[in-house]
Design goal:
Elements: H1 3-18, H2 31-41, H3 52-69, H4 77-93, H5 95-101, H6 116-125, H7 142-159, H8 166-173
């Protein structure tokens, strides 16, 4: 197996393990497989590491690619974004993918993967009252995602970490 084949295999492994059945439960038939297929095909060499604005444009493009591949009509934006964020988080945590694609260079821009557990933790810690009620993943849209991400960034900064790592904190608090 050459390096390119190894990296493709590693990316596929991370795509499948990061986004398992429980991550997209209730989103519709075929959503999981279509999402995993897109994640394993993302060209991580094109991951923009230059500016935050370029990264967020890329993140929106990848979210839309996942939505376009879904075999359902209701286009659950929140589920697509959560899957992408789970994948990127686990790619950051994978030493092979992180090193090869410089994922650590975008760590500070990575979003926390949102779900009901994370939303509950963010709402509990939202001292400014900036967050709307959790709309459920199936109904989450970009505007509300941005509000949750903003609160996550503030909370993470107070803890001395980046917001992507809050997922681990909330998971441990709620297990």
């Amino acid at each position: 197996m050459n390096e390119i084949e190894f990296m493709k295999t590693m990316q596929e492994k991370v795509a499948v393990s990061a986004v398992g059945p429980s991550a997209l439960r209730g989103q519709g038939k075929g959503v999981l497989g279509a999402t995993q297929r897109i994640l394993k095909e993302i060209d991580l060499l094109k991951l923009p590491v230059g500016t935050q604005e370029d990264f967020y444009i890329w993140l929106d493009e990848q979210t839309n690619a996942i939505l376009d591949a879904m075999p359902i009509h209701n286009n659950p934006w929140g589920a697509a974004r959560k899957a992408l964020n789970l994948f990127l988080r686990d790619a950051l945590y994978n030493r092979y993918l992180c090193k090869r694609y410089c994922i650590d260079r975008v760590e500070e821009w990575l979003e926390i993967p949102l779900d009901s557990v994370v939303a509950k933790g963010l709402i509990k810690n939202d001292t400014q009252g900036d967050l709307p009620p959790w709309p459920r993943l199936k109904h989450l849209l970009k505007n509300d995602n941005d509000k949750y991400q903003k609160v996550a960034a503030k909370l993470a900064a107070a803890k001395g970490i980046t917001r992507v790592h809050l997922d681990m904190v909330f998971w441990l608090e709620n297990r």
